Every structure is written in C-alpha cells, then in structure tokens.
C-alpha cells in the first residue's frame, strides 16, 4: 500500500472540522510558496536544490531530514532572513511567527515582558499589548508564571513562553525550527499536543522542522522528507488523521505504517 | 504544572533539609555556621600578619629603627585616633575620591560611546580598536609629565590621568558585552525589522550589562590608582591622599604614614565592593538565574 502522493495540497483533512479561515481545501491560497528554490552559500556549499513547497492556511507541513540538510535554511528563506540563490519564495502572510531551536527569551525580562516584546517592537498600543500578552500566556498554560525570569523556568516552560511571544502578533504563518529538540520526551509530546490544539484553534499555516519521524507524523497534515546535502524534497507523505489527534494515535498500526514510510524515504534520501 | 527550582542557599548545608516545613529552621543555624566558616580563615590570617608585624617591630628592629615599622597599635593611636591627623586624612581622601569619581564618570561616558560606535559597524571597530589597545599598552605614567605640562598641576590634570588609566577596561568589556548577543536573538530582532537604536537599547545594552559591570569594577579601582599617581607626581594644588602619604614619608611620621596608606587602600576596597554590589543589584537577578538555567 504505497500511495506516493504528489505535492498536491492537503488531501484528507476534511474528516475533522477544518479550521475557520480555510475554505474548501484546494481553493485556499498558500501563505507560503516555494518554486525551484535553491540556496548556495558564498563558500560554495549548496544547501538547497529545487525545492517546491506550499503551505496553505490550516496546513501543518513538517520537513524531516538528516542534520545539515538545509532544513533551517528553508525557514530562514521563508522568513526573509536569507535570500534564495535561485527560484522563487512567496510569502503572503502579514505576520510570521518564528520559533527558534532555543526559546531565545531575553533573560533580563520577566515572562510577561518577554511575551510583550514583539508587539512592543511593532509599536502596538501598550494596553492592547498587555491584553494580548496575558491572553497568549493563558493559552500556552503559563498563567501564574508571568513575573518569573526565564532562568527560573524549565526548558518546556521557556518554549511555551517563546510560543506565546509569537502568538501575540496573531501570525498567519508559523515557522518552527526544531522547537522541541532540546526537551525530554514527555514534555515534548505534551507540547506537541498543545501545539495541535493551538493550530486547530487559530488555523495558521505551519512549517515545522524536526528530526523526529513520530513527531512529524503526529503533528502534520503533510510530511516532506528531505535528502542529505544538497537538500531536496524526495517524498511527500499526506497524513490522513484529523485535527483532533489523541496521544494513543501513536500506537495505532496506521500511524506506524506512515512512520515506516517516512523512515524508509529518509534512509533512501540519506544514502 | 509547577516547577520547583528554589535557589540553593549560599553555602548550602551538606545534607539538604527535607522539603517542606522544617526547611527554614534547619537552614538558619547552618547559615550562621557557614558564615563563621567563611570569615574565620581570613581573620586567622589577619591575626598571623599582625603577630608577625609585632614581632618585627619589637623583636627584629632595634628601638631606634622602630620608626621603619611602627607597631599596629601605634598606627591606630597616632594615626586614626589622632583628631588632627584624622581630619587631614579625611580631607585628602575626599579630594582623591572626588578626582577618581570624576575621572571614572568621564571614562564611563567616553568608553561606552567608544564601544557602542565600534559595535555598530565592522569598519568602525577596525579603525578604532587598535587605539583602545594602544591606550592600554602605553605606560600612562610616562604620559603624566606631558599631561602636567599641557594642563597644569591641578584638578584637570589629575582627572585626565584617571580617565586615561580607566578607559580601556570599560571600552573592552562593553564592546565584548555588546558583541556577546546570540545570533538567534539578533535574528529575532531582524525578523521584526527593528532599527539600530532599538536593537541597541532593547537587546545589546541589556545583554552587555554583566560584562560592563565586570569592566566597571576594574576601571573604578584603576581610577583610584590614577588619582593617587596624579597626586604623587603633581605634588601641588589640592592635596589628595597621595600627597599626604608623600608628606608623612618625607617627615618620617611613620604611624601617620601607615594610617594614610591604609586609608588609601580602604578607598580601593570600598570602590571594589560598591561596584560589585551595584552589579549584583542591576544584573544579578537575571544573570545568576540564566547561568543556573543554562
């Protein structure tokens, strides 16, 4: 049973109630669109080659690949931190949320002040910023920790704060650069569940980078497998599970089969 | 979900108290003990030094040579407890502190501006950093006569000596601090299109504070040295503690000489403690916690 899916956008999310902003699946204009994207660095290393990719609102697209395959470069290009050497990168999102590998909180600011930071940088009115920050803190489950400094938080809580910081700007596109990579497995799975909940509630488009095949399959509507350097997308696997995923899903045969396919593609791309 | 990351008390007792109610009564006496343990060794060393001092003053030196090293109690009675001497020392210390503080303040303003300018562009750093190094490598003492030659022997010259001698640690540490910002933090600010000024004020300067205070602590001590050096060299104008030391030396008033040397050292110690305390007040809370968390 191998359903090699072409990079057609979103196949089977219709089982669950679709997130509010997305209309009928194929009609939604992508908030991120790469065509023939390539990146060669000044030192001559080619990080990416011929990458086609779409993220529509409500999509949760995950890229898995070996270390150093240019996954992070993909996000840096999507966010405008880096320019592609060839191909086109279109972003039609007013605000982009970028969640880094580490939480990148400012250690001298309390959780509340950290969450307010981005709104502050965008000169949002003070009162509105406060309200939005309080809401975001509540949403990520950090209520009661507002006045703590990041140094007094656990890794998982710091990542929650980082997430809240991005949520304040209500981004239509979220970029995640292995955000849970440094966390223990239990925290990781728990944050994954909460991320799914947030995604269902807010309906943003997400491009998520990870090493973990199970994490990729559990979170995504589509998994893209990248080859080793230069990074190319070798396989796209649509994930047919609905939005309301349960931790038990990880132990179903369907889940295992999908993970198997992704892993096989990874091995193939790596050799 | 709550996380328990209570800070371990300074010098935590060997066996951690059980979590919960009995924690504080157990910790209190332990803390007293550890305080004693902390103070006892240096006090023992002090007692040894004093004993050695007495031994040299009474057993080694003949009475007619005792002026070379007056016994400690003579330093107290003829120096610190002598109202006239004390008054002169007080005035001298006040002048020295005034010179050192003015010099330090100017050095902070100049040094920070210098470092900020260098942090803004590679070419500025390349153009200006060599001169910061030059400032550190030329023996300031060799410049002191020139400074006197140009600016006279008064307050201005002394302040200039202090500025020159304390500038480098401020420049070097501030620049290091400004450049210590993580790349991902820079990326975060770049993503949101902030300008240089916002980046400097909201990211680079706060991140630099721990390094800045490390530099300030060194610079403050150097500024005191600068004020005393200026005193010793210029020998004119308003006398600071340096001139007082020199006068007592010339008149062979050794208890007073020792007392003023101790007074000069105390300025240095107080300044060092003051800036250490200030640094902990300003950055301690987040710096310590982020160290522990890392």
UniProtKB/TrEMBL annotation, chain B:
Record localization: Cell membrane
Signal peptide annotation: none
GO CC annotation terms, alphabetical: plasma membrane
Transmembrane segments: 39-61, 97-116, 128-151, 157-178, 207-229, 257-278
UniProt GO BP: transmembrane transport
Domain ABC transmembrane type-1: 93-279
Record's keyword terms, sorted: Cell membrane, Membrane, Transmembrane, Transmembrane helix, Transport
SUPFAM superfamilies reported for this sequence: MetI-like
PROSITE patterns per UniProt: ABC_TM1
InterPro entries hit by this protein: MetI-like, MetI-like_sf
Bilayer topology: Multi-pass membrane protein
UniProt entry tagged with the keyword Cell membrane: yes
Region spans: Disordered: 1-25
Family recorded in the similarity comment: Belongs to the binding-protein-dependent transport system permease family.
Protein name per Swiss-Prot or TrEMBL: Hydroxymethylpyrimidine ABC transporter, transmembrane component
Gene source species: uncultured Quadrisphaera sp
């Amino acid at each position: 049973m191998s359903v090699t899916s072409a990079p057609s956008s979103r196949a089977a999310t219709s089982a669950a109630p679709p997130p509010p902003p997305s209309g009928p699946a194929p009609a939604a204009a992508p908030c991120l669109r790469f065509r023939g994207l390539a990146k060669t660095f000044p030192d001559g290393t080619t990080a990416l080659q011929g990458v086609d990719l779409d993220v529509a609102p409500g999509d949760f697209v995950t890229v898995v690949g070996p270390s150093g395959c240019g996954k992070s470069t993909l996000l840096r290009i999507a966010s405008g931190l880096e320019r592609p050497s060839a191909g086109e990168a279109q972003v039609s999102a007013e605000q982009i949320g970028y969640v880094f590998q580490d939480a990148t909180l400012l250690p001298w600011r309390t959780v509340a002040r950290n969450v307010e930071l981005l709104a502050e940088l965008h000169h949002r009115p003070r009162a509105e910023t406060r309200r939005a920050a309080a809401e975001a803190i509540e949403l990520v489950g950090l209520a009661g920790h507002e006045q703590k400094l990041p140094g007094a938080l656990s890794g998982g809580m710091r990542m929650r704060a980082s997430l809240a910081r991005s949520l304040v700007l209500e981004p239509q596109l979220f970029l995640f650069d292995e955000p849970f990579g440094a966390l223990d497995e239990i925290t990781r799975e728990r944050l994954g569940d909460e991320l799914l909940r947030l995604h269902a509630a807010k309906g943003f488009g997400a491009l998520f980078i990870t090493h973990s095949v199970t994490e990729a399959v559990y979170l995504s509507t589509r998994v893209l497998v990248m080859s080793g350097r230069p990074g190319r997308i070798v396989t796209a696997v649509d994930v047919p599970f609905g939005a309301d995923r349960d931790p038990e899903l990880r132990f179903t045969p369907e889940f295992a089969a999908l993970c198997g396919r992704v892993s096989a593609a990874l091995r193939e791309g790596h050799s | 979900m709550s996380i328990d990351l209570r800070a371990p008390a300074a010098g935590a007792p060997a066996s951690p108290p059980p979590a919960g109610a009995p924690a504080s009564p157990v910790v209190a006496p332990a803390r007293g003990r550890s305080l004693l343990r902390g103070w006892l060794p240096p006090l023992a060393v002090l007692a040894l030094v004093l004993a050695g001092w007495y031994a040299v003053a009474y057993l080694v030196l003949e009475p007619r040579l005792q002026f070379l090293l007056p016994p400690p109690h003579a330093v107290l009675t003829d120096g610190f407890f002598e109202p006239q001497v004390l008054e002169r020392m007080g005035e001298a210390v006040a002048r020295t502190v005034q010179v050192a503080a003015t010099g330090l303040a100017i050095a902070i303003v100049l040094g920070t501006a210098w470092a900020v300018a260098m942090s803004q562009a590679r070419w500025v750093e390349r153009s200006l950093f060599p001169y910061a190094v030059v400032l550190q490598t030329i023996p300031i003492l060799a410049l002191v006569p020139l400074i006197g030659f140009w600016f006279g022997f008064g307050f201005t010259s002394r302040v200039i000596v202090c500025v020159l001698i304390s500038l480098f640690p401020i420049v070097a540490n501030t620049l290091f601090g400004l450049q210590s910002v993580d790349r991902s933090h820079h990326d975060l600010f770049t993503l949101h299109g902030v300008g240089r000024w916002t980046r400097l004020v909201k990211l680079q300067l706060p991140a630099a504070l721990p390094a800045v205070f490390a530099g300030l602590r060194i610079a403050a001590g150097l500024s005191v040295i600068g004020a005393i050096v200026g005193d010793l060299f210029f020998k004119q104008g308003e006398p600071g503690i340096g001139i007082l030391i020199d006068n007592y030396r010339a008149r062979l008033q050794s208890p007073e000489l020792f007392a003023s040397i101790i007074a000069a050292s105390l300025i240095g110690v107080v300044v060092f403690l003051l800036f250490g305390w200030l640094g902990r007040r300003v950055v301690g809370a987040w710096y310590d916690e982020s160290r522990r968390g890392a």
